[in-house]
TrEMBL record, chain B:
SUPFAM superfamilies the UniProt entry points to: P-loop containing nucleoside triphosphate hydrolases
Short name of one Pfam family: AAA_16
UniProt entry keywords in alphabetical sequence: ATP-binding, DNA replication, DNA-binding, Nucleotide-binding, Nucleus
Family indicated by similarity: Belongs to the ORC4 family.
Full protein name: Origin recognition complex subunit 4
InterPro entries noted in UniProt: AAA+_ATPase, AAA_16, ORC4, ORC4_C, P-loop_NTPase
Ranges for domain AAA+ ATPase: 59-220
Entry keyword annotation includes DNA-binding: yes
GO biological process, one term: DNA replication initiation
Taxonomic source organism: Cyclopterus lumpus (Lumpsucker)
Subcellular location: Nucleus
GO cellular component, one term: nuclear origin of replication recognition complex
Function text: Component of the origin recognition complex (ORC) that binds origins of replication.
Subunit structure: Component of ORC, a complex composed of at least 6 subunits: ORC1, ORC2, ORC3, ORC4, ORC5 and ORC6. ORC is regulated in a cell-cycle dependent manner. It is sequentially assembled at the exit from anaphase of mitosis and disassembled as cells enter S phase. Interacts with DBF4. Interacts with POLQ.
């Protein structure tokens, strides 16, 4: 079993049949169908035009849904392409647009995609498997049978609005897809399906739903859909049919045996999931609910008809003999069961039959443990975080939207569905970071909410008797508090102490790294509201604070325009590019880029340009250059990964042709800090935009103009390209304009005062931040002197002068003036010794001799060596002197840190 | 009434003395903040206004308090915080984070400490903190979530601010100052440092984000202010239990300060260093001499304390040396003169001892030190270096030994250069004695 789960899937794609037509111009052959077979396994899947398929998503965990329109390849047969019509999942609709739907999206709902930003040509190699898609009319309710594998289309989505899908058009389009019977459920064996485990088949839906979690193992297993019956659900019931067929032949077995066998299959297939389910639901297994029964019966009938119809439904062509024989055989000769090691299901069956004999009351559970161990052991080895793997299980178990709700708890199903949908909604609201990718359905999203989900599910189980409405209310009330206190941990302990049977749950969680940043970090909110500015000066101060976002960015119109047109053209073309922006600090580089992004976002909202992602990383806000990968990945997809893994994922994302990708705009602030010895971080950042399918625009910001020449090796600098922009320091007029626009008619400054500040700052650095800070300080000084009746209440020249003096004057001279007599004498001695030696450096010993002489001249008692050293150290601590380490004693060398003139000036002024 | 009487009742002298000791020690050892900061009222007002604006209006700020060691930077900040806490609005809101550059030696430790002091670790339950990167992201996110009007303002006090500037990339400073300059949670960053050139330590992008507010604590008290300060530090307050004793004590302090010798001693201290901490140390020494037998500080006490605090540590070491060790030092002095400060080895010193000239000098030295080793006046020993450079003419009568002693500091340094320790010298030379 474990060998299968570990196996890397290598799928082989082959055309079936002769090419239908040949396009001379493009030299392409059109085909009618494509066969996908997994290496080493005999079964193949056939994809035909008109069929709905799942296509590899960019992060493996969310396969895209699409319909095949054309299949074609080139002459050599190496390139296989498919033209598809896309469907979007709810999770792919931007969060902000989801509310346009006006209702809760169904978990299995997809939308007919009519946008234009997507490439409809995909590589055939990215096709995973066929999928069942049903079109529903606008009013028709979603069937809540809990089929996990059927997707429903009701509306179309053109990246702005949802529209009712033209049913005529779609029906004609969907017709080929509908021709296979919608038989997602396997039929049960004819034996009475009334035993408790009858719920098991439906839980297959659950295992399928678990697929999209970013667990590699699960994904791989998913990819093996044809091989492994549990995965076969995704291939529209083909494998189920096969299995049903096999089970037909086992009617001789008692009903319970048969069903437990089926369950065994399930648990063995997705061991982790199954185990969880059983452990947590074990008590309730005995519950039999009427509706399950009836449902199952229905499904059984359906399934049977499906089997019958299978033979004549072309898209569902299957190689029955291969899949059926091994299963059938064991039933004929149960003793020989173990002789088919390649068939996981048969092994499991064998085990069941053995264990049944030993412990009839709980054969399934007993066995499930054994069966699951291998995969459990393996979980930590998976390259992704084990938490995610575990999460898949938890999700499965918990989220009642998933078909698992049909398991014995199904009497509660609807209420539970409601609860969980509400939970998801809440979580979505809580999560600010996710923008486009987030949705209740999006499995990455579950990472943060895992604890909550889990605890809530535990609680759900605990309070099984509780009225569902009450439960909803209870949960709703709980979440808002999540920020400040720690409900999760409290709850966990509570529930675990109350219900010892849930220990397995608990055991799993401590091992998973609980991501701290997901714990809703928050500065507690203040108990009293912040006071609003009361007078003109306070108002001015608030407006002058660097943090206040100005209405516009004056004096950077040209730069704004350049960046805007650069990014806009890239987004519109769907290409990538790099831009390097330099300028001294405080010249508005980051502010301008962010303003550009705000404008572009607005333009995208009103659909002037295609939608795009905007991601921002700052070299200073990470601890290591390689953390850039982690941050980019996290902001892009919400995934957490180690630096190496994140780099690999990003490489894959930007390197591989992925259908339907939006342009990503990446802002890298403080680029120079991403420097590493091999410069691989910078290399990658600039290399990705050059890839054909990347659609990545990288804007980099740094202080130095010649950074590419100075620190980058050739191959990095060359990739960065020559699109550069340099922000010149502000001139005094610009600074004045900036302050004026910030003040925005608040009359607080005299005109001359403003001019003085801006001229002074422009002459020194041209740093707008400095300018604003000085103005702010000037308002404070003005406020202090406001008691003086002669002032006009405006900030005048004198105030500004005072502020400028405070900020620009060096403290050295004051410090020397304030020094004690001996310290001043020592400084004099230093200068005297320097003059004597003709050097700018002397040992303490030499200076001390001078000092003693000066003491005598001044008529003071000469000081001791210790005292002299202490004086010297004090001057060194202020950095008036530069000293060698004090352990050198009298031999330490002394230098002046201020100019001799300054010292003499300060001493003379005494 | 009875209480009043109690106050006026005479306590036994021992009781009074212990009360005085307790009260003054508290004052001198900085356990008790003064009611109002002296000499730095303007700075106090400035800082108080600034922090109040953060606490009340939610305005982010950054400020540096710069002043030499012992100038009262921490005292000023503590006074301001105490005054701030008196205001109800500020008290309820302000979160405080105190960091010290000597304790938080890198950003990782500093981040953990910040998280702990902000009580953010509650949000992660019992989670032991993950990686440094996670930690940083966590904190930044926390600060980013806040906004000016709704989150509680946080005050970050960075003691020994200059040491934070030595952290890698100045990540912590950049991020704190960046938050203080952007529309995130309101914070005030207060740095305390004694380095005047601290701004030059900051990277330019960090520097640009700093508001350039500096509060300099460079007070320039005159000697009379200094004397007044001594007086106030020593005098007892009115609420001292034994009124009579307090009056006596204060009168004695008054006479003490008027004494000429005391004034000289204090002036010498004043000339050496104006900071109050060294004065407190001096007064502490005097206070320790107060006992039941001697209830009051006498001028002699203060002079003695002054002498102790000015004593040359190197000269003191000579008192404990044996004759032979002194001889060795004399020999080293000779060698130092001969080789003009160049290093020499033990063999040379040993030879120098045996040399005829040194042998003659030896008994002389012994004689000399045999008589005078008790109390070599400090000022006389300091004549040594003077003679060295000013030429022998100035101190022609100074015998060899004296000169050598004056140069002990130099000799010791030479020894250190030779990697000798005193014990090593003595051990090696033990056979030579026989």
């Amino acid at each position: 079993m474990k060998y299968f789960t570990r196996l890397r899937v290598r799928r082989v794609y082959e055309w079936r049949g002769k090419p239908l037509s040949f396009n001379r111009k493009l030299k392409t052959y059109e085909y009618g169908s494509l066969a996908i077979s997994v290496e080493g396994l005999p079964r193949t899947t056939v994809i035909k035009t008109g069929q709905h398929i799942l296509i590899e998503g960019e992060d493996e965990d969310s396969p895209y849904v699409a319909k095949v329109i054309r299949l074609f390849g080139d002459e050599s047969g190496k390139q296989k392409k498919a033209v598809v019509q896309w469907f979007v999942r709810v999770s792919e609709v931007p969060l902000s647009k989801r509310k346009l739907l006006g209702r809760e999206p169904h978990a299995q709902e997809i939308f007919y995609y009519q946008g234009r930003s997507c490439d409809d040509e995909v590589d055939a190699g990215s096709i995973l498997k066929p999928v069942q898609v049903t079109h529903l009319t606008g009013e028709a309710p979603f069937p809540d049978s809990g089929d996990g594998d059927t997707l429903y289309v009701k509306l179309s989505w053109d990246s702005k609005t949802f529209r009712v899908l033209d049913s005529a058009l779609v029906h004609s389009e969907l017709a080929p897809a509908l021709s296979p019977p919608p038989c997602p459920k396997p039929s049960l064996p004819p034996s009475p399906p009334c035993s408790p485990p009858a719920a098991a088949p439906t839980s297959r839906g659950a295992t399928w739903r678990a697929l999209p979690t970013p667990d590699l193992d699960v994904m791989r297993r998913a990819a093996q859909g044809e091989v492994r019956p549990s995965r076969a659900t995704v291939s529209a019931g083909k494998a189920f049919a096969a299995e049903a067929e096999s089970l037909h032949s086992v009617t001789k077995l008692s009903a319970s045996k048969c069903l437990s066998a089926k369950r065994r299959n399930n648990s063995a297939r997705t061991p982790g999931v199954r185990k969880k389910l059983e452990l947590s639901n074990s008590e309730k297994k005995s519950m039999i609910s009427e509706d399950i029964l009836s449902q199952l019966l229905d499904e059984e009938l359906e399934g049977k008809s499906a089997v019958r119809r299978l033979s004549d439904s072309p898209p569902q062509v299957l190689s029955f003999p291969h899949s059926l024989t091994p299963i059938r055989k064991p039933h004929k000769a149960p003793g020989a069961l173990g002789t088919f090691p390649l068939r996981p299901s048969s092994i499991v069956l064998h085990k069941v039959s053995l264990s049944e004999g030993n412990s009839p009351p709980s054969p399934a559970r007993h066995d499930s443990r054994r069966a699951t161990t291998p995969s459990q052991k393996k979980e930590p080895k998976t390259p992704k975080e084990p938490a995610l793997g575990v999460l898949a299980e938890v999700d499965n178990e918990d989220s009642p939207m998933l078909p698992v709700a049909v398991t014995p708890r199904s009497s509660k199903r609807k209420s539970a569905q409601l609860v969980s949908s509400r939970i998801r909604k809440q979580l979505n609201l809580l999560d600010n970071l996710q923008d486009l990718n987030s949705d209740g359905e999006d499995e990455e999203e579950f990472v943060p909410s895992k604890k909550e989900l889990q605890s809530s599910s535990e609680e759900e189980e605990e309070e099984a008797g509780l009225d569902s409405d009450e439960e909803v209310v209870f949960k709703k009330g709980r979440y808002p508090a999540a920020g400040s206190r720690t409900p999760q941990s409290k709850q966990r302990t509570r529930s675990s102490s109350r219900t010892p049977r849930k220990t397995p749950n608990k055991k799993v969680t401590p091992g998973t790294p609980r991501t701290p940043h997901r714990a809703v970090p928050n500065i507690p909110s203040r108990s009293l509201p912040a006071r609003q500015p009361a007078n003109v000066l306070e108002e001015a101060r608030t407006r002058l604070h660097v943090s206040s976002v100005p209405e516009s960015l004056p004096c950077r119109e040209q730069e704004f325009q350049d960046i805007y047109s650069f990014v806009e053209s890239k987004i519109a073309d769907g290409t990538g590019g790099c831009m390097y922006i330099s300028g001294v600090p405080g010249t508005g580089k980051t502010a301008t880029v962010q303003e550009v992004m705000r404008c572009l976002q607005h333009a995208a909202d009103v659909d002037e340009i295609p939608p795009f992602h905007f991601i921002e990383v700052n070299g200073m806000k990470m601890t290591d250059p390689h953390q850039a990968y982690v941050q980019i990945l996290q902001k892009l997809t919400g995934q957490k990964a180690t630096a190496d893994h994140a780099a690999a994922l990003l490489e894959k994302r930007f390197g591989n042709p992925a259908p339907r990708k939006e342009t990503t705009v990446l802002l890298v602030d403080e680029l120079d800090l991403l420097w590493t010895r091999k410069q691989n971080v910078m290399y990658n950042l600039f290399d990705w935009p050059t890839r054909r399918h990347a659609r990545l625009v990288v804007l980099t910001i740094a202080n130095t103009m010649d950074l590419p020449e100075r620190i980058m090796i050739n191959r990095v600098a060359s990739r960065l390209g020559l699109t550069r922009m340099s922000f010149q320091p502000y001139s005094f007029k610009q600074l004045q304009q900036i302050i004026m626009s910030r003040l925005n008619k608040v009359k607080a400054f005299e005109k001359d005062a403003l001019q003085l500040v801006s001229r002074k700052v422009a002459a020194l650095s041209g740093d707008a931040r400095r300018c604003l800070d000085i103005c702010r300080r000037a308002t404070e000084i003005c406020e202090h002197s406001a008691a003086d009746p002669s002032t006009t209440g405006l900030v005048g020249m004198s105030h500004v002068m005072e502020a400028l003096n405070e900020m620009f004057s060096s403290a050295y001279i004051t410090a020397i003036k304030c020094a004690s007599l001996q310290e001043q004498l020592f400084l004099r001695a230093v200068i005297a010794e320097f003059r004597r030696l003709g050097l700018e450096e002397a040992t303490f010993q030499q200076v001390f001799v001078q000092h003693q002489a000066l003491c005598r001249v001044e008529g003071l008692q000469p000081i001791s060596v210790s005292e002299g050293l202490a004086v010297c150290q004090r001057l060194g601590a202020c950095r008036l002197l530069l000293l060698e380490p004090s352990r050198l004693g009298v031999l330490q060398r002394v230098r002046l840190n201020v100019s001799q003139d300054d010292v003499l000036y300060a001493l003379k002024a005494d | 009434m009875s209480k009043r009487k109690m106050e006026n009742t005479r306590l036994p002298v021992g009781e009074c003395i212990s009360q005085v000791q307790e009260m003054l020690r508290e004052r001198l050892c900085h356990q008790q903040l003064p009611d109002r900061p002296e000499g730095v009222e303007a700075q106090h007002k400035h800082l108080l206004e600034l922090l109040k604006r953060t606490a009340v209006h939610g305005e982010s700020n950054s400020v540096l308090i710069v002043g030499p060691r012992g100038a009262g930077k921490t005292m000023l900040l503590k006074c301001v915080l105490r005054d701030l806490q008196e205001e109800k609005e500020a008290q309820k809101n302000l979160l405080q984070v105190h960091l010290n550059g000597l304790l938080q030696t890198d950003d990782r430790i500093a981040l953990k400490e910040i998280t702990r002091q902000l009580h953010l670790e509650n949000a992660v339950g019992d989670k032991v903190f993950g990686s440094f990167a996670e930690n940083l992201a966590f904190l930044l996110e926390a600060l980013k979530k806040g906004d000016r009007s709704s989150s509680r303002p946080a005050l970050f006090v960075l003691d020994e601010f200059d040491l934070f500037a030595h952290h890698k990339n100045q990540t912590l400073l950049y991020n704190l100052l960046d938050v203080s300059q952007s529309a995130q949670a309101p914070i005030a960053v207060v740095g305390l440092t004694c380095r005047l050139d601290v701004l030059e330590l900051l990277e330019k992008r960090v520097k640009s984000r700093f508001s350039h507010r500096q509060i300099h604590l460079l007070s320039n008290p005159t000697f009379s202010q200094y004397l007044q300060r001594v007086r106030t530090q020593l005098s007892l307050p009115d609420h001292f239990p034994d009124r009579k004793f307090a009056l006596d004590w204060n009168a004695s302090v008054e006479t003490l300060c008027e004494d000429k010798s005391v004034e000289d001693a204090l002036r010498r201290h004043f000339n050496s260093s104006k900071d109050f901490r060294s004065m407190h140390m001096l007064l502490m020494l005097c206070l320790s001499r107060v006992s039941v037998a001697k209830p009051g500080i006498k001028p002699a006490d203060l002079v003695e304390a002054s002498r102790m605090s000015f004593a040359d540590a190197k000269a003191n070491m000579l008192h404990g040396l044996s004759i032979l060790e002194l001889c060795l030092i004399i020999a080293m002095k000779h060698l130092n003169d001969v080789y003009e400060g160049e290093p020499f080895n033990l063999q040379m010193v040993h030879n120098g001892l045996r040399a005829p000239a040194a042998a003659r000098a030896h008994p002389t030295g012994r004689q000399l030190f045999g008589q005078n080793s008790e109390g070599i006046p400090a000022d006389e020993t300091h004549a040594g270096p003077q003679s060295d450079h000013g030429g022998p003419a100035e101190v022609p009568t100074m015998p060899h030994g004296r000169q050598a002693v004056g140069h002990v500091g130099v000799r010791l340094a030479v020894c250190k250069r030779l990697d000798f320790t005193w014990t090593f010298v003595c051990c090696v030379l033990c056979p030579a004695r026989q």
